[in-house]
Amino acid sequence: MICPECNSHEPNTAKFCGVCGTPLTQEGRVAHFLDGMPEENDHIDLPRHRRRAFYVTVTLVMAFTLAVLGGIGYLLYRAFRGDSQEPAAEMTNAVTENSYRYDNQELGFSFLYPRLWVLEERKETGKLLALTVGITSTKFASMTAIRLSPDVTVGGRDSIEAYVRNLLKDVLPAAPTATTGPGTGTGLSPSSPATGSSPTLDRVEINGQFAFRIRYDQASGDTRITVLRYFLAPSDVLYEFQFRAPAEEWTAVSPDFSLIIQSFQVNTDSD
Prior knowledge:
Layout: H1 26-35, H2 52-81, H3 93-96, E1 99-104, E2 109-114, E3 118-122, E4 129-134, E5 140-147, H4 150-153, H5 156-167, E6 179-180, H6 192-195, E7 202-206, E8 209-220, E9 223-232, E10 237-246, H7 250-262, E11 265-266
Parallel strand pairs: 6-7
Antiparallel strand pairs: 1-2, 2-11, 3-4, 4-5, 5-10, 7-8, 8-9, 9-10
């Protein structure tokens, strides 16, 4: 064999180089290492093994960091997605868990409203029912129910549309028929007020119920108020929902309005 240190030729059975003394076998190298150790070092330090708690802590820190980054990413997504999405699509279990249910057994309908909002019944001449639910005097929803005459209901949707148009004659320009809204959109993101165009009466669906919808702006002193109104007639009772809020606060309050109208349910078997 050849010595790796001085390149001298040594017998294959040699444990050490005869020239430089370099160990030539594994046993010789171990013996050489042990002989060269100081006397006070009577043991060999092995690599340290970290405790399990160390790895658990590292794992938790990494998980927390990923959760924080995920939350930031979601908030950024919500911030840059814009307000073009319908608020109804944002209704989740978290919203309904923070709401009350109003259930009218006499007329056979119900809807949800935010827990922080106050619901009051009021008396109005000629109305079966009148409700107001809101959080301030400028941000609220109102609902009324009236009994339609047979002359209106017998004509179907066109007759009901004419009746609704007559109720809206002060805000709705004359038009031959209602326009058909896209899908079942709620219209809670006002477009007509934003563009300044004349309001239109749209045909939409609310939980499978045919409905009419209109939105427009009104001036209240120096404040511009956005108004959104729905008319539903699942039977001979016409339900009107009216949502009102300052235009600059509409985006913030529209999810609460969406909760009310999208949760509206009518038992058509009831009188």
